[in-house]
Amino acid sequence: MQTVNKTIQMAFYQFFNGEIVPVAQPLLQTNDLGLLRGFGLFDYFRTYNGIPFRWDDYWNRFANSARLMKLDLPVTQEETSKILADLFALSGEADIAFRFILTGGYAPDSVHVIKPNFIIRAEPLPQDYPAGRLKGIKVLPYEYVRDLPEVKTTNYVHMILMADEMRHQSAADLLFHKDGEVSELTRSNIFLFKGNKLITSDRNILNGITRKVVLELAEPYFETEIRPVLLDEIMNADEIFTTSTTKWVMPVVGIGDHTVGSGLAGKHTLFLQGLFEKLIAGWGS
Amino acid sequence: MQTVNKTIQMAFYQFFNGEIVPVAQPLLQTNDLGLLRGFGLFDYFRTYNGIPFRWDDYWNRFANSARLMKLDLPVTQEETSKILADLFALSGEADIAFRFILTGGYAPDSVHVIKPNFIIRAEPLPQDYPAGRLKGIKVLPYEYVRDLPEVKTTNYVHMILMADEMRHQSAADLLFHKDGEVSELTRSNIFLFKGNKLITSDRNILNGITRKVVLELAEPYFETEIRPVLLDEIMNADEIFTTSTTKWVMPVVGIGDHTVGSGLAGKHTLFLQGLFEKLIAGWGS
Q: PANTHER family, per this entry (chains A, B) (predicted)?
């Protein structure tokens, strides 16, 4: 039998408990509290030009989620930076996404946290449709407010339950509202323009990093209001868009049967989209 | 090198994708929707005298949860019965518990269900404190109503977040209430006695199998009302108890700082507890 010098192949790997293994490798025992009790949180970000985008912001949000869930982080930001670099190098890709998953860990009694499990997955970038960002998306209004909205928990049950209905209605996402107030989409923040005024919700939302970046970019150009937003205001907005790590600045042109403005991506929205695209094109330089 | 005839040791095993492997074996890939999105449900039951208790009831509840979550079951009840028998035989124990876990399965896009993952874990029985069932427990009132209460989802975030506070206040569980109405404890149903009248909630609850059994046992002895229950009624009840697979018929003697009745387990409660214990003592015979 020949001895082969086994080398790691270019591919997507994950970090878990100090080791780096292929993403498809069975990894978790089935008494993990993330699986048994939905006691988990995550975060998701990507590189542009090979450099993690707004890494400090994503790390701080992740650390804040962990603190609110009373879970200790097993690694520092500096240690994590090194892991990200290793996973990126192993991928052989020009750009990748990273997914952090932090759970309550293995629990013999299926209730009490002993030691969290922390996983970092390297993932291929989601498919990109630049034309879609010019055309915009339709969303469905959905009466719901996320539990613990400021934590990026793993609870997305309603999104997955509604996946078929969204497909059926050619909608790309849900717009959460409750008691006449809107909060966010399933995985992204919402903005509206009324004239030259840019308005976004500050309540019952996850603090999006793309939202923060867009507010910075908009500051020199638009008057901005960050406050609770009514569903009525959304239905009477001139322009609506949503922001996220994967959606960037995405026009929202329909809410159920309601057409937003002219039904086309708004001019202010496309202007901000342009600023964002310029920022990421030059990221790291 | 000697050839050893490897035999499976007496121990706790789990079923997954047609195979039976030790419960401690790393099993799941990290792109399972139960882990990533909290899209999972479970069930939990046990044997008495080696025979699964009310197996048809537990199976039907599990199948109903799966239907409400739009997840296909990969095995029939008959096939599952055989798996339970195998896991039981491998354990070498007189009695064990079974935990079903059904998730949205592996999702390359982290959103859409392709094929559910179904795991059956054999587990040791939880520790039993017969004296505790005579003494009763204290619970903390907690304003919350479970999302999708009729589904036994894996979302128990609040229970785990409150674990330290419960320990601190010497409480064993949370009593969920909202808008003046009580629903259930984190993992068990609630009953109250007012005089000889037995009352239990029918709204925003998981349909407990032990609840069902206790209602059957109580029928010849007590007038029963199954209807929404107010928090005020709970605070003025003569006796309170809670029912579950692990708690059986457990007196509730304190709600936060409020003492229920005399602070001792009520006589009707202990009578029903006796009936339940007689039923399980003779189970299978």
A: AMINO-ACID AMINOTRANSFERASE (PTHR42743), AMINODEOXYCHORISMATE LYASE (PTHR42743:SF11)
Judged by CB atoms closer than 8 Å, whether chains meet at A119 and B30 is answered as yes
A 121-150 near B (Cβ less than 8 A): 121, 126, 147-148
Domain that holds residue A179: 130-281
Give me the number of domains chain A comprises: 2
Q: Are B285 and B262 in contact (CB under 8 A)?
A: no
- CA B250 – CA B136 distance, rounded (Å): 6
A267 and A186 part of one domain: yes
Interface test with A, best of B14, B21, B36 (most A CBs within 10 A): B36
- CB contact under 8 Å between B35 and A103, yes or no, is yes
- Chain A contacts in chain B segment 36-55 (CB below 8 A): 36-40, 42
Helix ranges restricted to H, A204-255: 209-218, 231-235
Query: Please, are residues B92 and B10 in contact by the beta-carbon 8 Å criterion?
Result: yes
A77-91 vs A55-68: helix crossing angle, rounded to 10: 120
Q: Do residue B35 and residue A35 have CB atoms under 8 angstroms apart?
A: yes
Are residue A174 and residue A113 in the same domain, yes or no? no
Whether chain A has a CB inside 8 Å of the CB on B20: the answer is no
Work out the mean pLDDT of chain B and round it to a whole number: 95
pLDDT tens-digit readout, B133-162: 999 999 999 999 999 999 999 999 999 999
> What ipTM does this complex have?
0.93
Last residue of a domain, one of B103, B123, B143: B123
Do residues B199 and B252 share a domain?
A: yes
CATH number at residue A51: 3.30.470.10
